[in-house]
Amino acid sequence: MQHAVGTPLPPPHQPGHGPATGWSPAAHHPGAPPPGTAPQGAPHPGAAPPPGAPHPPAPGFVAGGPAPRAPGQSPPQAPGGTPATLQPGHGPVPPNPDTTGHVQLPPGGPVAMPSPPPDMAQADTGATTLAVLLIGPAGAGKTSVAKFWAEHRRVPTAHISLDDVREWVRSGFADPQSGWNDHSEAQYRLARRTCGFAARNFLANGISCVLDDAVFPDRPVVGLGGWKRHVGPGLLPVVLLPGLEIVLERNAERSGNRRLTDEEVARIHGRMAGWYGSGLPIIDNSQLDVPATARVLDEVLARAITSPPQW
Q1: Percent of the chain having pLDDT more than 70?
Q2: Residue 142's domain spans which residues?
Q3: What is the pLDDT of residue 43?
Q4: Cα separation of 123 and 120, whole Å?
Q5: Residue among 45, 99, 39, 49 nearest 74 (CA)
Q6: 266-279 pLDDT, tens digit each
Q7: CATH number of 294's domain
Q8: Is residue 89 included in any domain, yes or no?
Q9: Which of 129, 157, 148 is closest to 305 using CA atoms?
Q10: Mean pLDDT for the chain overall
């Protein structure tokens, strides 16, 4: 036997009005006795059903579907004044954006290159929605510059840190310091793809993004090629590359698994030198503090909008 679940409630009785129409079980049964009388042979109202008999339907339930509403009558209301969302024989009703606070968000798609200004003058990066990728070795200041730049823009901007996302993995975290292997490689790739999804969703809803990663020029498929696939061709890469002495000094101030050995820092810095001659904009921030580097980053991005780098 099928039992009805989630039957709608009758509308609340309002003072000065008679019984609500459209909710009487007799509405779908011609020949039913008038209200207040029981059919012949029926048990007295309030009497317990005989053993084995099914329980009577809940008040307001109509077999086969909801009762019809009179013209102009509002839908049945649940306690609290919200429309009932479940009806017998029907699935849930989608939420009403006007009453539930439901916000429809545009889906994230590949990010296109920002349009240059009509007069081809220097673009105003502070009022432009951008996707920026800061590249550099450990100790280059990528995270500090990205945070400062995002916090001081006139338009909403999100900082998406690859290291932060990678460290979401708690049990089973593959720390490259203990040896690079398939597990650490997979976790890095998962983190990059997750950052790319997040950036596309933010940008589709009008929020700029700045990402940071130690992308190597000798691994184009995993590095820039991967970021272009994850975010889109509108991603603007910029390289932060201070001198080796500077990155060694900054790395020495780190703690935890983000601090590398001097040998590893020197090796990474040497590989990053391959970005010279690549066509990507490079900022040597050896003698620049974080605010000054952020200002130079704005200038570089303004030129990149009017004349996008080929990568």
Answers
A1: 61
A2: 130-306
A3: 54
A4: 8
A5: 99
A6: 998 999 999 998 88
A7: 3.40.50.300
A8: no
A9: 129
A10: 76
Q: What confidence category does residue 234 fall into, taking pLDDT thresholds of 50, 70 and 90? A: confident
Domain membership of residue 97 (yes or no) is no
> Which contacts of 193-199 are long-range, i.e. CB under 8 A and separated by 24 or more positions?
193/230, 194/165, 195/160, 195/162, 195/165, 195/230, 196/227, 196/229, 196/230, 196/231, 197/108, 197/230, 198/158, 198/160, 198/165, 199/108, 199/111, 199/131, 199/158, 199/160, 199/230, 199/231
With b for 16 or more beta-carbon neighbours within 10 A and e for fewer, the 204-238 pattern comes to eeeebbbbbbbbbbeeeeebbebbbebbbebbbbb
32 phi-psi bin (left φ>0, alpha ψ -120 to 50, beta other): beta
Query: Cα(246)–Cα(40) distance, rounded to whole angstroms?
Result: 98
Domain count, the chain: 1
Integer Cα distance of 271 and 268 in angstroms:
5
Spatial CB neighbours of 84, under 8 Å, sequence gap ≥ 6:
8, 9, 75, 76, 77, 78
Question: Is 50 contained in some domain?
Answer: no
pLDDT tens digits, residue range 107-159? 777 776 666 655 545 556 777 889 999 999 988 999 999 999 999 999 999 99
Check residue 11 and give its pLDDT: 55
254 membership: H or E segment, kind and range:
none
The pLDDT, as a whole number, for residue 236 is 93
Contacts 24+ apart (CB under 8 A), 2-7: 4/57, 4/58, 4/61, 4/88, 5/86, 6/86, 6/87, 6/88, 7/57, 7/58, 7/60, 7/61, 7/86, 7/87, 7/88
Whether residue 215 lies inside any domain: the answer is yes
pLDDT single digits (tens) 183-206: 988 999 999 999 999 999 999 999
87-104 per-position pLDDT tens digit: 555 566 666 655 556 777
Q: Taking the mean position of all CA atoms in its chain, how far away is CA 211?
A: 16
- Report how far apart, in Å, the C-alpha atoms of 288 and of each of 141, 162, 213, 282 are: 10, 24, 20, 14
